[in-house]
Amino acid sequence: MHVLKSSLSWLAAPVLWFAGIVVLLLVWALNYPCPEAWIQRYFDNDGCSFIEAVTIGFFFLQIAFIWLFPPMARGGRRVFWQVVFSLITLIAVCRELDWHKAMIDVSSIPGATTGTPFKMRFLTNPANPLGDRLLVLFCFVLVIALCGGTLLYFIRTLWKGLFKLHPVCWSIAFLGGTCILVQVVDRAPSVLRKKFGILLSAPTQSLLSILEEGQELLLPLFVILALIQAYFLYGEKEVV
Predict the structure, then answer these.
(1) What pLDDT, in 10s, does the model give residues 175-205?
(2) 206/211 Cα distance (integer angstroms)
(3) According to the 3-state scheme, what is the secondary structure of the chain?
(4) Helix 76-97 and helix 202-234: axis angle, to 10°?
(5) What's the CA gap between 230 and 226, in Å, rounded?
(6) Contacts of 53 (CB under 8 A, 6+ apart)
(7) At what angle do helices 202-234 and 167-196 cross, to 10 degrees?
(8) Distance CA 232, CA 168 (A)
(9) Dihedral through CA 209, CA 94, CA 149, CA 59, nearest 10?
(10) For residues 236 and 132, what is the distance between their CA atoms, to the nearest angstrom?
């Protein structure tokens, strides 16, 4: 683990992201123009494609690493954050497999909100059943409390650690940055079509699908990297 203790260990996350992007671009180029059937088989098929299955596997591996490589000192505080991190990971699994969408089905009700129920207009539409709206509200509160609360608690330490080239902070920063890039790539075709009337070609859409699903696969790898860095750099020392 010498590389994790060197002065350049903060570069692990940037190298991982760059290598991942290069591989994804090569996969796209070598299989150009990547027909829709190929994309569905390997990258994007409602949680059933090869890459999506691997991503789910990495998320469950992430939960194992949370408990096997705790970066905090022993005690109740460590167990609390291990539980929180595990719950956040399970939320990511539910999102990846669209389990949350299966909880509610109001498409047959006149005037009900179409598409995913997990959006604000679902809560404000009186045509949607009250029980469903309360369930969606509960999910919103739970996710915001876990993810937002965790971010607020650690944000100051993470921000300061970036300027100090703290390897764990850089890994978490690339986790957050990659999450943003995934959302940008996901929404780009819709925004370009609705706002600017631009229709992307099939090869370009396939590239975006590969970049979206491929970068989602990187997310649990960043977390696993951060856990390993914290554990081997600091052992039982509290680092975050």
Answers:
(1) 999 999 999 999 999 999 989 999 999 999 9
(2) 9
(3) CHHHHCCCHHHHHHHHHHHHHHHHHHHHHHCCCCCHHHHHHHCCCCCCCHHHHHHHHHHHHHHHHHHHCCCCCCCHHHHHHHHHHHHHHHHHHHHHHCHHHHCCCCCCCCCCCCCCCCCHHHHHCCCCCHHHHHHHHHHHHHHHHHHHHHHHHHHHHHHHHHHCCCHHHHHHHHHHHHHHHHHHHHHHHHHHHHHHCCCCCHHHHHHHHHHHHHHHHHHHHHHHHHHHHHHHHHCCCCCC
(4) 170
(5) 6
(6) 47
(7) 160
(8) 11
(9) -70
(10) 44
Residue 36 in contact with residue 202, Cβ under 8 Å?
yes
Using CA atoms, how far residue 211 sits from 17, 62, 190, 203, in Å, is: 12, 21, 16, 12
What pLDDT digit, counting tens, does each position of 79-125 carry? 899 999 999 999 999 888 878 677 777 667 777 777 677 778 888 88
Q: 186: which 2 tokens?
A: 């996901």
